[in-house]
Amino acid sequence: MVFSANPLALSVPEPAFETWLRDSGYLEIIDQRTSDLHRLSSSSSSSASPNPTTDADSSTTINSGFFLLLPIFSYIGTLLSLLTLNPFSKVTTDDLSGDTPSWTRGFIGLLESYSFPSSPSQARLRVHENARRYARNYAFLFLLFFACSLYQIPLALVGLISSLALWDLFRFYGNRWGLDWHPVIRQTLVRVAQCATAVILFCSNVQLALFCSLGVGYAVMILHASFRKLTPVKKPTGGRH
To answer: Per-residue pLDDT tens for 127-173?
Structure first.
């Protein structure tokens, strides 16, 4: 993005500056500025609120209680807005094929690395960007939750192993009997094996373990991505030749 000529070089319009930050990849600056503006507005509104008078103690108590509930409703609305969000809309294959970020410093971070999103727009910004940065971490977490679900449901583990063994036997005997030379018979046996696999997986409640791991993994990803502050990304620097 190229800014318009400014002879005095006094200021840059706020929308143009934010657009330049987004295009340049400095999303952590936008995240920090949003938190700072929300903190300043909250402090100014609290300092500007009038002191209660002795003549209207009851009404002041009701109003103060109502204003105390407003931030809670705002937080709930921010979390509910994430239910309509697709966190994988900006995830690409490069995000999944790259290096896995550090689990301690990168993914978990310090206590100061977390804060409640001040607005739904900030929550969406964090979720989209963190889903790209920690895509491999979230994938490993889903596999861990799926393994825990199979451990909690042994029948699902038996059914999954049985279905894998069925296809391994089909491949072994298919090569031994030369089914590649008989495509009609091979296609028929493939359909039979697919039906048998579906019956095994359904009867062993593998779908229940899958749904549980998906639900827990999605909830953990949304909460972590929305609360995790955006940190600067270290870009590789080219060496001197």
So the answer is: 999 999 999 999 999 999 999 999 999 999 999 999 999 999 999 98
**22 exposure class (CB count in 10 Å sphere: 0-12, 13-18, 19+):** middle
Distance CA 167, CA 13 (A): 62
* DSSP tally for the chain: helices H, then strands E: 9, 0
- 168-195 average pLDDT score: 89
- CA dist 17 and 3 (Å) reads 9
The answer to whether 114 and 227 have CB atoms below 8 angstroms apart is yes
3 state SS of 228: strand
Written as six digits, the tokens of 32 are: 């920090």
Enumerate the β-bridge partners of residue 228. 114
